[in-house]
Every structure is written in C-alpha cells, then in structure tokens.
Amino acid sequence: MKKFLLLNLLALSGFLQETRGQQQDSIWEQIRRIAEAQHEIVALTIRQNNFSHVLPEMRKVYALRFPEKYESALSQEIEIVADSLMHKKQYDIAHQVIDEGLNALRLNKNKAAVLKKKAYILKKEGKEAEALRYFRQSVALETAH
C-alpha cells in the first residue's frame, strides 16, 4: 500500500512539474512576442532619431519580467540597443538603457555582458579609466559563483 501511494505521489509530482513547465512555456511565448514587437519599436525610434522615446519604450521591455531561463535574450536586447545608440553618438541614453537594464537582470553572466558593453561605450567615448572599472566589474561577475 505504501509503495502504491509513493508511486502515485511521484506520478502526480511529475505531472505537476510538466504542467508547470507548459504554463511557463506559454507565458514565455507571450513575453517573447511582446518583446519582439517592442524591439521593432525601439529600433525604428532610434532609426528615426527620436531618442527621447527610446528609454520609455525600453522600460516596457524591462517590465516584461523575463524568466531566468530566457534572461540572456533581455541582456542581448540591452546590448543591441545600447550599441545602436553608441553608433548614433547618443552615449548618455545608451548608459541609461544599460543602467536601468541592469536592474531588470538577475543572473551574473547577463549582468557581466551588459557591463562589458558599458565599458566598450565608455572606451569609445575616450573615458578609459571608467571603462577599465566596468571591464573589471564584468570579469568579477563572470568569475563569481
């Protein structure tokens, strides 16, 4: 009887985990679709030189609450947008996108990638001492467990 109950509990546990996984996948799909549309809005905003609209649109992306499993997609988005702004010489906005984006990230490897982008932008601006500080922070996060 105990063996039968244990088997049923294990089966139920597996079913619940599978159901939870399916729900998370469904939630992720919705987040992904919204994030893709927001990406296009941000890209067009930058292309049209409407820089004052970039940060408010990026805040909508940050508010999506990416699951940790997919958080690297958010860090990549932050890097892409900051890079685009850097090429348009909109350094201040690029740094704001990064700084606010860091608050939306939880995983060290993703924070490290974004800090590295910040360092590259600072280097491009000729702010080498500050860039060095952020490169070091990036490395420290990468090596932290």
Write up what this structure looks like.
- The protein is mainly α.
- The protein has a single domain, classed as Serine Threonine Protein Phosphatase 5, Tetratricopeptide repeat (Alpha Horseshoe).
- 82% of the residues lie in helices and 0% in strands.
- The protein has helices at residues 2-47, 54-62, 71-87, 91-104, 108-124, 128-143.
- Helix 1 packs parallel to helix 3 (71-87).
- It is flat, with a radius of gyration of 20 Å.
Distance between the termini: 44 Å
CATH class: Mainly Alpha
Determine the structural class based on helices, strands and strand pairing.
mainly alpha
**For the residues shown, what is the average pLDDT?**
88
CATH homologous superfamily (4th level) name: Tetratricopeptide repeat domain
Question: Count the helices. How many?
Answer: 6
Helix proportion of residues, in percent? over 70%
Q: What CATH architecture would you give?
A: Alpha Horseshoe
Assembly context of the chains: single chain
Number of strands: 0
Low-confidence stretches: 6-10
Biggest sheet layout: none
Q: How large a portion of the residues is in β-strands, by DSSP E? A: under 5%
- Spatial shape: flat
Q: How many domains in all?
A: 1
What value does the Rg take, in angstroms? Answer: 20 Å
Q: What is the CATH topology assignment?
A: Serine Threonine Protein Phosphatase 5, Tetratricopeptide repeat
Order of helices and strands, N to C? Answer: HHHHHH
Q: How would you sum up this structure in a few lines?
A:
This protein is an all-alpha fold and 145 residues long. The chain has helices at 2-47, 54-62, 71-87, 91-104, 108-124, 128-143.
